[in-house]
Specification:
With about 290 residues, this protein is an alpha/beta fold. The protein has helices at about 5-15, 70-95, 100-115, 150-160, 170-180, 195-200, 210-225, 230-235, 240-255, 260-265, 270-285; strands at about 15-25, 25-35, 125, 130-135, 140-150, 190-195, 290. Helix 7 crosses helix 9 (about 240-255).
C-alpha cells in the first residue's frame, strides 16, 4: 500500500514513523521517533532493595542490635576518627593554611567540576516500548518492544490510556487523538526483514543482499539502544566483525573506486560466523518483543 501525501504530512508533523519489522515469529508494526537525549527520560539505575543486600551490607533497623564484629569495627572507626581529629587540632595550632595552599585547593575543585560535566545531548531512538515485569520477579522490569500484527491493533493501542516510552515526546497527545489504522503505512525505508538475514548470510558471499543487511544493522542498533540490550550494542559496535561487514557492504553499494577492494575484503568474512552472530542478535531482540493483538 502506497502512502498518500496526507499520511506523509501526519507523520512529518509528529516526527514519528510507523515501522514494520519481520521476525522469525511474524511481522509486526510499531512506532519509532528520534529525539535529543536530554528531552527523553532515561532509566535510573535500580537501587538495591533490602532483599538484595546481605547482612553485612544492610544497616541495622531501629532497635536491632548490631553484631559483635560490627560493634567492634564501629569502635575502632570511632577511635581512629578521634585520633585524626586530635592530630588536626594540634596541626592547626602550629600553622594555618597559607593563601597558596588555598588557591591550589580551589584549582583542584574546579578541575573536579569540569570532569563531572554531563555529556553533550545526542539524537537517540525512542520506540513504542514499555517496562515488562520479569517472570522470575515481577518487581523487576525489562524493556519490551510492542509489536502489533495489524495496523488496527497498533492504532487501537495508541488511542488507549496504556503507557509507553513514547508518552514523553512532544505532540504525542496529538498522535494519540488522531491516529487511525489508515495512518499505519510504513515507508519502504522503515520496513525491515530480519527474518531473512540469517538465511541470506548462509547462502554465501555471491548472493549477500547489501540493502537487506545494512538496513538490519540500522534497525538493530536502534533497538539495542531503545531496549537497553548491551550485548546487541556490543555486537554491532564500531570495530566489531559485524560493523566491518556493514562498512564493506556500504563501500560496495557506493560504487566508488574502493568498491573493488571492498569485494575482496568481503570474501575474507566468514559467512557462517556472520550468520551465527546475526542469529544471536535477532534471537535477543525477539525475546524482548511483546506481541499484541
Amino acid at each position: 500500500m502506497r502512502r498518500s501525501a496526507k499520511i506523509d504530512a501526519f507523520w512529518e508533523k509528529a516526527r514519528v514513523d510507523p515501522v514494520e519489522i519481520a521476525l522469525p515469529s511474524g511481522v509486526g508494526y510499531t512506532l519509532r521517533a528520534y529525539r535529543m537525549s536530554d528531552t527523553v527520560e532515561e532509566d535510573e539505575p535500580e537501587d538495591a532493595t533490602p532483599a538484595d543486600l546481605d547482612d553485612s551490607d544492610r544497616e541495622p533497623a531501629d532497635g536491632e542490635p548490631a553484631d559483635e564484629d560490627d560493634s567492634a569495627g564501629r569502635a575502632k572507626e570511632s577511635a581512629a576518627s578521634s585520633s585524626r581529629r586530635k592530630r588536626i587540632d594540634e596541626d592547626s595550632d602550629d600553622e594555618d593554611l597559607d593563601e597558596e595552599d588555598l588557591d591550589e585547593s580551589d584549582e583542584d575543585l574546579d578541575e573536579d567540576e569540569e570532569e563531572d560535566e554531563e555529556p553533550e545531548p545526542e539524537e537517540v531512538p525512542v520506540f513504542l516500548t514499555w517496562d515488562r515485569p520479569t517472570e522470575s520477579n515481577p518487581a523487576v522490569t525489562r524493556r519490551a518492544l510492542l509489536l502489533f500484527r495489524t495496523p488496527d491493533g497498533l492504532a487501537e493501542f495508541v488511542r488507549s490510556d496504556e503507557a509507553s516510552h513514547l508518552d514523553v515526546i512532544e505532540d504525542w497527545d496529538t498522535v494519540r487523538a488522531e491516529i487511525t489504522a489508515d495512518h499505519v503505512v510504513p515507508s519502504d525505508e522503515d520496513q525491515y526483514e530480519l527474518d531473512l538475514v540469517v538465511k541470506n548470510l548462509r547462502e554465501g558471499h555471491d548472493v549477500w543482499d547489501s540493502e537487506l543487511l545494512i538496513k538490519a544493522g540500522e534497525v538493530c542498533r536502534d533497538l539495542g539502544h531503545a531496549l537497553r540490550l548491551d550485548s546487541v550494542m556490543n555486537a554491532l559496535s564500531t570495530g566489531s566483525p559485524l560493523d566491518e561487514l556493514d562498512e564493506v557492504l556500504r563501500n560496495i553499494e557506493s560504487g566508488r573506486i574502493g568498491a573493488f577492494f571492498a569485494r575482496r575484503r568481503l570474501r575474507r568474512i566468514g559467512s557462517q560466523q556472520a550468520a551465527l552472530a546475526w542469529r544471536s542478535i535477532i534471537g535477543k531482540i525477539s525475546t524482548s518483543v511483546d506481541w499484541r493483538d
